[in-house]
Design a protein that fits this description.
269 residues, alpha+beta, four-stranded antiparallel beta sheet, 28% strand, elongated, disordered N terminus
Length: 269
């Protein structure tokens, strides 16, 4: 093979740059996107990088001439890409379990059923306004049969950052209805540290089976403004597109209150 033919067969510096650097730049862009589109963007960039690295590497005659070297280049390309995607992956907010089912029965002593949801920041970064929505799947469920609570150890004073609101917990929310009249409890935690978990209690007093599902919503890497107005904690709300926000009622939690695990509904003027 002549030198000219060999040079044409081997990948050029620009081709290596296109295979590695361009997807890397797009990954950096993906870290600035929100919780919904960011992971998908990074996954697409990762696939593009894997394809580009493999397609570029196997153009080397030395690699292409050996099945073992070809296999090794594929594994190396996958390793490089997975490492970069893992490094640039945006902070992850998880809630578990994804749903619970109340059977509608009460215990021998008449006790109500209570399940606990755990909201966790699985990343190594602080995240702010971490939101989770609890959805009551039965459209006939009554608000008087469902109580939302937060255990004492998950109620951190809102005033820890010098806001002067130590009696309020940094977790609050809105009770809303979906267009199909499902009860929705959209809750937000002002700040979650790396690997921190918060717990939410759902108590059901009804006598028919009921399913409550949970999913994470908005969160940010930047602090979000919170305003204190009397007995109200006012924060930006990022409602789901299907939520009827006009019919929502705010609620909050007191740090030291014992009733209903600290929950209260402020007066609405």
């Amino acid at each position: 093979m002549s030198e000219t033919t060999r040079q044409k067969a081997e990948p050029t510096r620009n081709e290596w740059m296109s295979a590695l650097v361009l997807p890397l730049v797009f990954m950096l862009i993906g870290t600035k996107l929100n919780a919904d589109s960011g992971p998908l963007w990074l996954a697409v960039c990762g696939l593009a990088m894997v394809w580009g690295l493999i397609a570029t590497a196997i153009r080397w005659p030395w690699i292409r001439s050996s099945a073992l070297r070809t296999f090794g280049s594929v594994i190396l390309s996958l390793g490089i890409t997975l490492g970069l995607v893992w490094y640039f992956w945006i902070p992850t907010l998880n809630v578990f379990p994804g749903h619970v089912k109340f059977d509608g029965s009460v215990g021998a002593l008449g006790s109500n059923q209570t399940y606990e949801f755990t909201l966790k920041n699985s990343s190594e970064h602080d995240i702010f306004s971490a939101e989770v929505t609890l959805k009551v799947e039965d459209t006939n469920a009554s608000i008087h049969e469902i109580e939302i609570g937060v255990p004492k150890d998950s109620r951190i004073p809102l005033g820890e950052g010098g806001r002067g609101a130590e009696k309020f917990a940094d977790i609050n929310g809105f009770r809303c209805r979906s267009p199909k009249t499902n009860l929705l409890y959209n809750m937000s935690v002002e700040k979650m540290r790396p690997q921190e978990s918060r717990h939410i209690l759902v108590t059901y007093t009804g006598k028919t089976p009921l399913v409550v599902s949970a999913k994470t919503e908005f969160f940010s890497r930047e602090p979000q403004a919170v305003r204190i107005d009397g007995d109200k904690v006012i924060r930006p709300a990022h409602f789901d597109a299907e939520t009827d926000s006009a019919g929502c009622f705010p609620f909050g939690f007191m740090v030291d209150a014992a009733e209903y695990n600290g929950m209260f509904y402020p007066k609405i003027n």
